[in-house]
């Protein structure tokens, strides 16, 4: 991997996003709007919003980044752009890390906006430091980006990329502890949830909501980051240089 090439890829992606106002709005505004909608739904039950609001601060960035990244990468391949890029002195890891760096920068802005809206306007109550909510949100968004880059290698059309949502994203949402505490799941499902990265992001958010202790939060962030790095490595191993 060459840092100069990786940075050039990241700048290219950010330039494209700046020109694509609809995608940029989806990345930055949609998580905030979903949080507002959730607050509105539970307007008469603020305790319910306080319970699930932190978890959804982890889930929404993961979901949105996975969807946008997988489709964007597939569009690069189907249009022939990816094949032209690989005629230059650029490695697979340069491409993937450049995308992860660009979307990671967007994720930082996304997390700052979502946390500001949720804590400021929607009055979500948490015990831990607010800045750690943003850190977990960024880590989770980068995880969604990495998984989106990985699964895009196995899709041939944008529709096929979307089909990975129920296979990769939905099971993690169902088992992460949002609907039912993980320790209340059947033993097999609890074991499966323990190897899914979104579970640790939700654990970190719930820990911040309940206590001021941050040791467990940093451990969970490290696990999420390790999953993201693993997904990038797998993506580099499976990324095709040529368009079929």
TrEMBL record:
- Domain named ABC transmembrane type-2: which ranges? 18-242
The domain of life is Bacteria
Q: What is its main location?
A: membrane
What PROSITE patterns does UniProt report for this protein, alphabetically?
A: ABC_TM2
* Record has Cell membrane as a keyword: yes
Transmembrane stretches, by residue range?
24-42, 54-74, 95-119, 131-154, 161-180, 221-239
Q: How does it sit in the membrane?
A: Multi-pass membrane protein
The answer, when asked if Cell membrane is one of the entry's keywords, is yes
This chain's protein is named Transport permease protein
